[in-house]
Design goal:
The complex is a heterotrimer. By secondary structure, chain A is mainly alpha-helical. Chain A has helices at about 5-35, 55-60, 65-95, 100-110, 115-125, 135-140, 150, 155-180, 185-190, 195-225, 230-235, 245-255, 260-285, and strands at about 40, 50. Chain A is globular and about 75 Å long. Chain A has a domain at about 60-255: MetI-like (MetI-like fold, Orthogonal Bundle). Chain B is an all-alpha fold. Chain B has a domain at about 65-230: Orthogonal Bundle (MetI-like fold). Chain B is about 75% helix and about 0% strand. Chain B has helices at about 5-35, 40, 55-65, 70-100, 105-115, 120-135, 140-165, 170-175, 180-210, 215-220, 225-230, 240-260, 265-270. Chain B is globular. The model of chain B has no long low-confidence stretch (mean pLDDT about 85). By secondary structure, chain C is an alpha+beta fold. Chain C has two domains: about 5-230, P-loop containing nucleotide triphosphate hydrolases (Rossmann fold, 3-Layer(aba) Sandwich); about 235-325, OB fold (Dihydrolipoamide Acetyltransferase, E2P) (Beta Barrel). Helices cover about 25% and strands about 30% of the residues of chain C. Chain C has helices spanning about 40-50, 90-100, 105-120, 135-150, 165-185, 195-200, 220-225, 230-235, 245-250; strands at about 5-15, 15-25, 30-35, 55-60, 65, 75-80, 155-160, 185-190, 205-210, 210-215, 240-245, 255, 260-265, 270-280, 285-290, 295-300, 310-315, 325. Chain C is globular and about 75 Å long. Chain C starts with a strand and ends in an 8-residue tail after the last strand. The chains are: A mainly alpha, B mainly alpha, C alpha+beta. Chains in contact: A-B, A-C, B-C. At the A-B interface, helix 1, helix 3, helix 4, helix 5 and helix 6 of A face helix 1, helix 4, helix 5, helix 6 and helix 7 of B.
């Protein structure tokens, strides 16, 4: 739908973005691939040698990796469950007419804009501290033993913090989807004698299915890379109880200076993310025309 | 058609809604309140909600002692710089894809999207080494570059979805009316695209401001933005809750306000147009 | 002046041929309508003339000058788009003034022309409004205003009335025809609606699958359609087409007779049938008549014609108004 002239200038205008992204993706990724085949530690410069798939073997058979993988799955799964489940309920709530709806909406989405290091520290100290934290005070008020959150359930604590950050995202998107539902459709169902519950199951939920899928996929992509929350609260500990795959790679790279091992771990992380990404890209691609 | 809802239902939902909203917002509110307490009041049990001695000393102290302003400026420069650079690269690309699409446009868009899904740890090692060798570690320039590339796909996508909503007819009308390509862009496209560009700008400042992987891994002291600065409070000696709260409040306030203004665009930007 | 000539114009998008090859001459001051079903290439042809698409091969001449490679701005044409394509961020005044501003006209001249156009189009009271605050018909007029201030060699209209409701469509049709008489400028008008084509055109170009099926005045096309496609497309309700034995009896593969050329009788006639649905329009009644061995034919009767569903009726085609077509669908003389 354009003349040759516009097409030519269009190609020229796309070039910088395409070339830069290509470089950004291809160069470091192929370096990671190459490093992952080397025995390469920054503490022993000049000792690099070809190692084949040895790094992968070490990384994948490291008990920390299995724990890390499990922790990653628990973290992602837990946050998804809380944020999507809670998001659906929040969206339904915010879709009802009530006084001060706009203000409540602002309060609900606010956590999404809080930087990860801030929310992690505020939760860890001011809310979840076993002695001075607010939760401990609430527990004592009700005559209960305060919970040492990060001592007894470190991974769950992180799941809570991250869920708090992502609940607004799910709420906002599901609310948008909910509001795009045709009222006439709901009214038609009501005329057909459907009650509130069956209207929700047969009309509202199917309508939101796409949005829910989008939320799940996008959150998964971001959650696989959760990092700051772990770094500032537990440093992956106690032991490796809150170490995820992402965090494990960071430890190997910047704390143990094991470039080879970290690279192998990085590639493993890329593969994991790609499994999700393929579904997401397909879904979004379908939406483009 | 909107239906009349009985006042009782409305009141019930008002109570539930405000209660839930309050609970979710509470950690932020608590942070703001604590920032006005003395350190003693901050850790007091039972906690003091409103009836404590309000003081602004934490803000004074945070600003004077820890060179807070430097980190704040780092955040400003890095988020604004990476967003503007990103827009500069993305606007022409999005224009081309929206108004002169070819068979491959869709593939290019999806490919750009897939680069956003590449986990950062996958390229952490080479980027770290490249930055070390190029002297870019702990520099603002380095972070601007990394964050530009990390957010470029989102910028391109957002602009693309906005541009695509501008009917091609209008640009063709301008062409028929005798406008050159430059005049078409200045007089017709830009005024119509300003809202879209503005919300893209806003969302990406938010994303860059809160980015906490690269900023933590590639900076030490000099170029550390607020994310990294706040993280330094995690060490035991930094457990001064009132000061942590003051620093946090300052770090999140500007972005929270921007976020509230751009909540609509956020949906579009973060779902790549899949949900509108 | 606004004489436009297309010579062997060919357009393909990749391997999809939209317009195989077209030759066409449009005289100065002529009102030409391109009509055809959707996807017939009529809009593409208009966009080729406008310069919004490149021709794959062939030449486009305006007033004898080869414009094929010229940019749209330099062809001296104005276009009214289906969506009106008004600039939403500019007032009506600025919308109309935009082409003049692009041409670098001075302020006083712009003002005079804009106000003049606004007066012709009854827009004087709306000059400060934004397009979003106007009704469909007013937007349409603004789009026309923007087209006329340039004093172009020819106006191009791309289905300009398709977004309006029926009543407004009728009155805008009159306004555009009126405008043509006032301005005395060539107009090329694209539509899929044969009523618009019949009522407005000096010359109709019937297009189908990128090919010209027939060119002629409305009455020429009505009286002597060159083939089945034109016969079926021009005229409302559609011409009745009959194949098989009845057609063979008259020495044709297909015969066609318009509803208004069937004589009705309750006593005797050529074909005997039963009345199906009768549509009463007041002035006319359209009867859908089922005839054994032929199928359903539509016949026009008087508005007061009183026949009920299921009653018997006889139809007789007027011999001089009967159209005969051969196997390939071309008219037999």
């Amino acid at each position: 739908m354009a003349t040759l002239q516009t097409r030519a200038s269009a190609r020229l205008m796309m070039t910088p973005a395409v070339v830069l992204l290509l470089l950004w993706m291809a160069v470091p990724l192929s370096m990671t691939l190459y490093f992952s085949m080397l025995r390469y530690n920054l503490l022993m410069p000049g000792m690099e040698e070809w190692a084949g798939f040895l790094n992968y073997r070490f990384f994948l058979t490291d008990p920390a990796f299995l724990t890390g993988l499990l922790n990653t799955l628990l973290l992602v799964g837990g946050v998804l469950l809380i944020s999507v489940g809670g998001g659906i309920m929040m969206a339904l709530l915010l879709d009802q007419p009530f006084f001060g709806q706009g203000i409540v909406r602002l309060m609900v989405i606010a956590p999404f804009f809080v930087m990860p290091t801030v929310s992690a520290l505020v939760w860890k100290n001011m809310l979840m501290h076993p002695v001075n934290g607010l939760f401990a005070w609430i527990a004592r008020t009700f005559g209960l033993q305060p919970v040492d959150w990060f001592g007894e359930a470190p991974l769950f604590s992180i799941v809570m913090i991250v869920s708090w950050q992502w609940l607004p995202f799910a709420t906002l998107i599901l609310l948008t989807a909910l509001q795009s539902l045709d009222t006439e459709q709901k009214e038609a169902a009501e005329m057909d004698g459907a009650g509130a519950v069956s209207r929700f199951i047969h009309i509202v939920l199917p309508h939101m299915a796409r949005a829910i899928t989008v939320v799940v996929l996008i959150e998964t992509i971001f959650l696989l890379s959760v990092f700051a929350e772990i770094l500032v609260t537990t440093n992956g500990g106690p032991g490796v109880q809150t170490t995820t795959v992402t965090y494990l790679v960071y430890v190997q790279a910047l704390l143990q200076f094991d470039v080879g091992g970290a690279s192998a771990g990085g590639i493993v992380a890329v593969v994991l993310a790609n499994i999700v990404a393929i579904f997401l890209v397909r879904l979004i691609g379908k939406n483009l025309e | 058609m909107a239906r009349a809802v009985s006042t009782r239902t409305r009141l019930t939902f008002t109570v539930i809604g405000w209660l839930v909203g309050f609970v979710i917002f509470f950690p932020i509110l608590w942070t703001v309140l604590t920032s006005f307490k003395s350190e003693g009041a901050a850790i007091a049990t039972p906690p003091q909600f409103l009836f404590f001695e309000w003081t602004a000393e934490n803000y004074v102290e945070v600003n004077s002692r820890s060179d807070y302003l430097k980190h704040f400026m780092n955040s400003v420069v890095i988020s604004l710089g990476s967003t503007l650079l990103g827009l500069l690269i993305a606007i022409p690309a999005a224009w081309a894809m929206a108004f002169a699409p070819t068979k491959r446009t869709k593939d290019v868009l999806l490919w750009m999207l897939s680069t956003k899904m590449l986990p950062a740890v996958g390229v952490l090692v080479p980027i770290y080494l490249l930055f070390r060798d190029a002297g870019l570690l702990d520099t603002r320039i380095g972070l601007v570059l990394v964050l530009t590339m990390a957010n470029l796909p989102i910028i391109v996508w957002m602009l693309y979805t906005y541009f695509r909503e501008i009917p091609g007819d209008i640009l063709e009308a301008a062409r028929m009316d005798g406008a050159s390509l430059a005049k078409e862009i200045i007089y017709v496209l830009t005024p119509m695209a300003v809202p879209g560009i503005a919300s893209t700008l806003l969302l990406n400042i938010i994303l860059a401001w809160n980015e906490a992987f690269w900023t933590l891994n590639l900076t030490a002291a000099k170029a550390a933005p607020l994310t990294a600065f706040i993280a330094s409070y995690s060490s035991p000696e930094g457990l001064f809750w009132a000061k942590l709260s003051a620093a946090s409040t300052l770090a999140i306030a500007p972005i929270l306000i921007m976020g509230w203004f751009s909540q609509r665009q956020l949906v579009r930007g973060l779902t790549f147009g899949a949900v509108k | 002046m606004g004489e436009i000539r297309l010579e062997k114009v060919h357009k393909a998008f990749g391997s999809t041929v939209v317009i195989p090859e077209i030759d066409l001459e449009i005289a100065d001051n002529e009102f030409v309508v391109f009509v055809g079903p959707s996807g017939c290439g009529k809009s593409t042809l208009l966009r080729l003339i406008a310069g919004l698409e490149d021709t794959t091969s062939g030449r486009i001449l305006i007033d004898g000058e080869d414009m094929t490679a010229r940019s749209p701005a330099k062809r001296g044409l104005s276009m009214v788009f289906q969506s009106y394509a008004l600039y939403p961020h500019m007032s009506v005044y600025k919308n109309i003034a935009f082409p003049l501003k692009m041409a670098g006209a001075d302020k006083a001249a712009i003002d005079e022309k804009v106000r003049n156009a606004a007066r012709i189009l009854n827009l004087t009271d709306y000059l400060d409004r934004r397009p979003g605050q106007l009704s469909g018909g007013q937007r349409q007029r603004v789009a026309i205003g923007r087209a006329i201030v340039r004093e172009p060699k020819a106006f191009l209209f791309d289905e300009p009335l398709s977004n309006l409701d029926a009543a407004l469509r009728g009155s805008m049709r009159l306004e555009i025809s009126e405008l043509h008489h006032q301005l005395n400028t060539t107009m090329i008008y694209v539509t899929h609606d044969q009523v618009e084509a019949m009522t407005m055109a000096d010359k109709i170009v019937v297009l189908n699958a990128g090919r010209i099926e027939q060119v002629g005045s409305p009455l020429e096309l009505y009286r002597s359609p060159r083939n089945l496609f034109v016969a079926g497309f021009i005229g409302s309700p559609r011409m009745n087409l009959v194949q098989g034995i009845e057609a063979e009896k008259m020495g044709a593969a297909t015969i066609g007779v318009r509803p208004e050329h069937l004589q009705l009788s309750t006593e005797s006639g050529h074909w005997k049938g039963r009345v199906g649905v009768a549509e009463h329009l007041g002035s006319d009644t359209f009867l859908h008549v089922d005839i054994d061995g032929i199928g359903q034919l539509t016949a026009r009767a008087d508005g007061e014609f009183a026949l009920r569903h299921g009653e018997t009726v006889y139809l007789t085609p007027s011999p001089e108004r009967l159209h005969r077509f051969d196997d390939a669908g071309n008219a037999l003389s």
